[in-house]
Amino acid sequence: MWQYFLKRVFWSIVTIFVIIIVNFVLIKLVPGDPVHAMIGDFPAPQDYIDQLRRDFGLDQPLHVQLWLYLGNLAQGNFGFSFANRQPVLDLILGRTVNTLILILPAIVFSAIIGIALSLAAASRGGGFDITVSAITLFGYSIPVFWLGQVLVLIFAIVLGVLPTSGMYSLRAPQSGFGAFLDLLRHMVLPLACIMAFKIAVFSRTARASILGVLNSDFVMTARAKGLSRGYTLWRHVLPNAVIPVIAVFGYQFGHALTSSLLVETVFAWPGVGQLFVTAVGQRDFPVLQGILLLSTILVVVANVLADLLYTIVDPRIRRSLGARHA
Amino acid sequence: MTSPQAKPLVEISDLHLSYTMQRATIQASRGASLTIAPGEAVGLVGESGSGKSTLARALLGLNDPKSTRIDSGSIFVDGTDVTRFGERDWRVLRGSSLSMVFQDPLSFLNPVMRIDRQIVEAIPKSMRAEGVSERVDDLLRLVKLPQAARRSYPHELSGGMRQRVLLAMALASKPKLLVADEPTTALDVTTQAEIMDLLGELRQRLGMAMLLISHDLGLVSKACERIYVMYAGRTVEWGPGSSILKTPAHPYTKGLFDSARALRLPNGLFATIGGDVPNLAHKIEGCPFRMRCPLAMPKCTTMSPATQVLGQDGHWVRCWAAQDSGIAPAQGNDVKNA
Ligand SMILES: Nc1ncnc2c1ncn2[C@@H]1O[C@H](COP(=O)(O)OP(=O)(O)OP(=O)(O)O)[C@@H](O)[C@H]1O
Ligand SMILES: [Mg+2]
């Protein structure tokens, strides 16, 4: 089993490496002076430009340049954002944390709610099932930016109970529980926006898998034992039904990163999505490349973790992997 | 043990049951009747699709209530008619009087739950006083499973061991009746024999009744006191195993015997029952076996055969052609050549 994971990790590293190469090629493809691509549209001091030429050996052959580029990345040197007057790595790390504060709870809660809804629908059936399907369809089809604006209109402007945008209020406490509460209040609307879609996705996956499991023979065994329907759903159906749901975790994480572009723009959430949109506008290439690289790493890591979780939940996989690689 | 006077544990009378599907309604039971006395071993045989599992599931209320309807007939268990039972009533009955083991022990076990937990669940609340773990020990010993199997997952066990796990779960409630639906079909020959021996031994020890379902007449006649033969959703012949074995009266039963013995006909072909089981989505006038029957006569097309008794030992048959137990010897049943 560990060999399987070593193999997974190896291929993850290969994936990341490929993205680095793509990054490197992109620099080369931008028309004009490559130094320009590395700096962006902002005026940089002449000695920084000269230093970049030296660092990347722009007069050297391509493979040497790639080697130097890798060396820079390895040292955490992702370049400098003149638009933000900050080293790229510092900038995107902070922003990525802000995005994860939003995305991770969104995925976890959406999965829990989506699974719970489908489970309840499976146990109640009839009207409740139809209601859940309607909610799912709604979550699927509603555009995120529209939902965001409607939510702001209702909860921030008309009712005035939640902030319209941002992550912190200036007047709120800077630390402690007060600051946490303030953050939570800011999170509610963007979370709702991301989760509307995610709940739909998870409940659809869960619904299909629950229906499949309900038809399994071992559910009949549970009935033959005289177990109640609720207990059977909880102890037999659920553990089997979550397995395919976990399998889509990694993919859903990547998708949530993408949707953060829209949500963070609507709510002025200072995350990596918003940074990306701004950087595109400013032609801030170092930042764009940094985000591309970092989000690749995040998605790859998320997929490996989802795989790990998958093997923990399903003993059959644990064994077949053990047998194959022992 | 078989005394017809004893109040039956199970009495199914002229059961008609149908499955409703999107396109068709399948009448899977069309007049099935069966009784089981307390402690008795009863066999149920018939080709694939004849409705054996349907009947067994109906007896435990395990058919999906959404798509299954009992059209007529009755099922009495311990003197109570269960045809109108709701899921709640069934649960009580399944947790106490009735248990079932199934054909494919792997798919009938939860793949992500350890064996001991699955057995524990089957122990009724009322029997947990003496300690759950001890009870699991007892059950494992009863079905001759090693203690090491406790912490295993189903996929880690052999087919025979899995069937023993199903048995342990079924026995956990000390049932009065164990329904075994083709319990050895998925196993290799040696393991089959082991499981059959175990079933016989357990039945003796626990004094429970058993309904053994199989398409293997030989296997059933060894393990059971009485045998029911089922065709197209109805029971067509039943009686003491020895009597059915010696003097099968229904042409279908004879066909089953001949194909079981792989009887070679004079023309060198193996005897099989030609033709197919009729489509249970369609209504059938008269005798459902007449299309494949070597003895079919005009009456069979129009009139459903009456049930008639053969001799004194409770041997019954539903066939126009079977006049008495000494019916004409089996002719070649190879309808393909007829
Ligand atoms: N859940 C169900 N829904 C719809 N039709 C069913 C269902 N279960 C069985 N049937 C149909 O009912 C008929 C009888 O099936 P059943 O499984 O009772 O036969 P069987 O004698 O047990 O056969 P086998 O030896 O293959 O197990 C078949 O035509 C089958 O297709
Ligand atoms: Mg069957």
UniProtKB/TrEMBL annotation, chain A:
A Pfam short name: BPD_transp_1_N
Recorded GO CC terms: plasma membrane
PANTHER family documented for this protein: DIPEPTIDE TRANSPORT SYSTEM PERMEASE PROTEIN DPPB-RELATED (PTHR43163)
Protein name: ABC transporter permease
Membership in a protein family: Belongs to the binding-protein-dependent transport system permease family.
Record InterPro entries: BPD_transp_1_N (IPR045621), MetI-like (IPR000515), MetI-like_sf (IPR035906)
Transmembrane feature ranges: 9-30, 100-122, 134-163, 183-201, 233-253, 291-313
Localization of this protein: Cell membrane
Keywords in alphabetical order: Cell membrane, Membrane, Transmembrane, Transmembrane helix, Transport
Main location: membrane
UniProt keyword Transit peptide, yes or no: no
ABC transmembrane type-1 domain boundaries: 96-310
Protein's GO biological process: transmembrane transport
Membrane topology recorded in Swiss-Prot or TrEMBL: Multi-pass membrane protein
Keyword Amino-acid biosynthesis attached: no
TrEMBL record, chain B:
Subcellular location: Cell inner membrane
Main location class: membrane
Membrane topology type: Peripheral membrane protein
GO biological process, one term: peptide transport
Record domain ABC transporter: where: 10-257
EC number of this enzyme: 7.2.2.11
Family, as annotated: Belongs to the ABC transporter superfamily.
Record's protein name: Nickel import system ATP-binding protein NikD
Catalytic activity entry: Ni(2+)(out) + ATP + H2O = Ni(2+)(in) + ADP + phosphate + H(+)
Catalytic class of the enzyme: translocase
One annotated GO molecular function: ABC-type nickel transporter activity
Organism: Oryzicola mucosus
